[in-house]
Amino acid sequence: xxxxxxxxxxxxxxxxxxxxxxxxxxxxxxxxxxxxxxxxxxxxxxxxxxxxxxxxxxxxxxxxxxxxxxxxxxxxxxxxxxxxxxxxxxxxxxxxxxxxxxxxxxxxxxxxxxxxxxxxxxxxxxxxxxxxxxxxxxxxxxxxxxxxxxxxxxxxxxxxxxxxxxxxxxxxxxxxxxxxxxxxxxxxxxxxxxxxxxxxxxxxxxxxxxxxxxxxxxxxxxxxxxxxxxxxxxxxxxxxxxxxxxxxxxxxxxxxxxxxxxxxxxxxxxxxxxxxxxxxxxxxxxxxxxxxxxxxxxxxxxxxxxxxxxxxxxxxxxxxxxxxxxxxxxxxxxxxxxxxxxxxxxxxxxxxxxxxxxxxxxxxxxxxxxxxxxxxxxxxxxxxxxxxxxxxxxxxxxxxxxxxxxxxxxxxxxxxxxxxxxxxxxxxxxxxxxxxxxx
Length: 439
Ligand code: DLL
Hints:
Blueprint: H1 19-40, H2 42-50, H3 72-77, E1 91-97, E2 105-110, H4 111-128, E3 135-138, H5 146-158, E4 161-163, H6 170-180, E5 184-187, H7 189-201, E6 213-217, H8 223-233, E7 236-243, E8 248-254, E9 262-264, E10 269-274, E11 288-294, E12 305-311, E13 313-314, E14 323-324, E15 329-330, E16 335-337, E17 340-342, H9 344-351, E18 357-366, E19 373-380, H10 387-405, E20 410-414, E21 429-431
Parallel strand pairs: 3-4, 3-5, 5-6, 6-7, 18-21, 19-20
Antiparallel strand pairs: 1-2, 7-8, 8-9, 9-14, 10-11, 11-12, 12-15, 13-14, 16-17, 18-19
Helix pairs in contact: 1-2, 4-5, 6-7, 7-8, 9-10
Bound molecules: 5'-O-[hydroxy(phenylacetyl)phosphoryl]adenosine.
5'-O-[hydroxy(phenylacetyl)phosphoryl]adenosine binds at residues 97-98, 140, 145-147, 217-220, 239-244, 248-249, 307, 309, 327, 330.
């Protein structure tokens, strides 16, 4: 694979700013954000007053821990636009995050917000190995989801040629990728797999495409999945993170030269990791829930937003800003099976270590009697699909799951092509237990 390390002179000066300078900038921006939120957003004025705080009480970054949290529930209660810090007429765009039930969470952007967002996605694409002049194929969904339009404007900002393919019509995606010779592809890792399968179904070798890097995110994925995708496409695969409430894609990006977790663009977002149950701040290096404070957002500043994403903070490597480890899962995606906590990403890791198993799997939860049970339904790879081989691989997977997770999990290895494919975020859990709402 090509060496795509960016030339240091092409980076934004903030990317290499000495930590003290970054801290000064963060404090200055935090103070401004807190002041504006207090003045303009009734929710924050109330929360601060209840906590006995005024904006002037923020003297250092350590004071962050004294500020109240903002939760998804707070955003829900202020539906649709109750968290705005600017008049509605100053908004240029609205997106919404997919709620599985009920009302979506609406998020809004001023001209300044769209400008910072494009700049951060441009920075992310460059960190991933994209360059001005590259052809970028965007297969994240366009629409209320922030993936498509977020990637699109960032790629244009960097000076790339954008193909706004959106998700779906997979055969046409392959045609466009081959004929236009895209250098960069942006989509969810699970949809990348669908496209790779489609290449092969059509009799083409994806390694012969011009793709040099895939910028994959919007859902958890694993190191094992990276290896699978890199080998099958002969391209780099790097991780991009973001969430609509805070902005969209481009909050953090993995640098292609190190591939060691995601650099958080700390000049725009102040990260913390807290204990998911007590909310107590944890030192860098400890695993817990990521909490983000926006430092430059105008329309909807968020203070200490509880992302529910689980990770840990690590020191900077390719950049001076801190990194976060790849997201392992969300607190609300955690499966609790007979008292053992586990995430679909752990299952993915184990599945992909068995050569004849494909990355297409689903965790099925049921309660046949009084106890919960889980079956991992996973497709065999076409070359390993005989009944005898499938049954052997099932026994092996079940044994490995038991060993790694400490709980008995059944494995059902099925024929290729049976499970539903996703065009965006993959559905990894099917919960058939009585009384459990759909995820
Ligand atoms: O998924 C924004 C996005 C689009 C990120 C394209 C990256 C690429 P939401 O739909 O609001 O926004 O979902 C946000 O998705 O809280 C995480 O749980 C999950 N997520 C996003 N990126 C990653 C990632 C977009 N790289 C939620 N790894 C977040 C794991 C991710 N989970």
